[in-house]
From TrEMBL:
CDD domains: cupin_KduI_C (cd20491), cupin_KduI_N (cd20294). It holds the Pfam family KduI. One of its GO terms (molecular function) is zinc ion binding. It is an enzyme of class 5 (isomerase). This is 4-deoxy-L-threo-5-hexosulose-uronate ketol-isomerase. The gene is kduI. Belongs to the KduI family. It comes from Polaribacter reichenbachii. GO terms for biological process: D-galacturonate catabolic process; D-glucuronate catabolic process; pectin catabolic process.
Amino acid sequence: MKTTFETRYASSPQAVKKYDTQELRDEFLVPDLMQPGNIKWVYTHYDRYMAGGAVPTTGALTLETIDPLKSDFFLERREVGIINAGGTGTIIADGEEFKMLHKDALYLGKGVKEVVFKSDDANNPAKFYMNSAPAHTAYPTKQVAKAEANKIELGSLETANHRTVNQMIIGGIVTTCQLQMGMTELKTGSVWNTMPAHVHDRRMEIYYYLDIPQDQAVCHFMGQPQETRHIWMQNHEAVISPPWSIHSGSGTSNYTFIWGMAGENLDYNDMDVAKITDLR
Ligand SMILES: O=C(O)C(=O)C[C@H](O)C(=O)CO
Ligand SMILES: [Zn+2]
């Protein structure tokens, strides 16, 4: 079992204007979070937000601290949200067991010392997708099933953006310091997420795409609304959205994505929406 991490530093919109395809992918695409038998983290310098993947197979995996945190244990000064993007598994947090079905979420607050991940079936392992942000208060652990999410219906089939936003780790359901997470599912025939697009300079965000059928892909759009770029994404890949960037995508089929964010506020609706016809 191995825990690895990489660091992503923050980029300015002026610098990103000049990036070619590979530079954009190197800075913002996170292609390899889900590694069987391992835990992988990306530590970003956007709000010190982290995205990770834990894929237990035949053995259990333990959440370990990593060097940039300079802490005795991972959640010493952090909180984490976890959504299972794979088969059924279990998370044991300081001795308390949580059965995690596909698309179940779990919030663990500051101070939880020991976190263990297990899969029911090594051939169909749990894929625990994790987002973590610095935390200054210890809030209670809470599990949230998809059925318990706050559901928002957006878009329409006519504009190919009919989708359900499942707000899972959000005020009213879970109390957090700064983390918000949820999962948006596109209806069959709809391909556009987060259109009209928005920025929220007060919060960074990461999208993790799943349920992309074989041989299909999602074209993720980023950049300032007047200066957009795109990154082609495969199933189970994540993409970092700087606070100044739109984060939107169009697929060659419908799909699901997990969004997670942190920053200045906990107001999900604090978005500066860009008019579709103003995008460049
Ligand atoms: O489909 C959408 O619209 C979303 O899911 C938007 C994300 O939740 C988001 O970007 C929140 O800031
Ligand atoms: Zn957003």
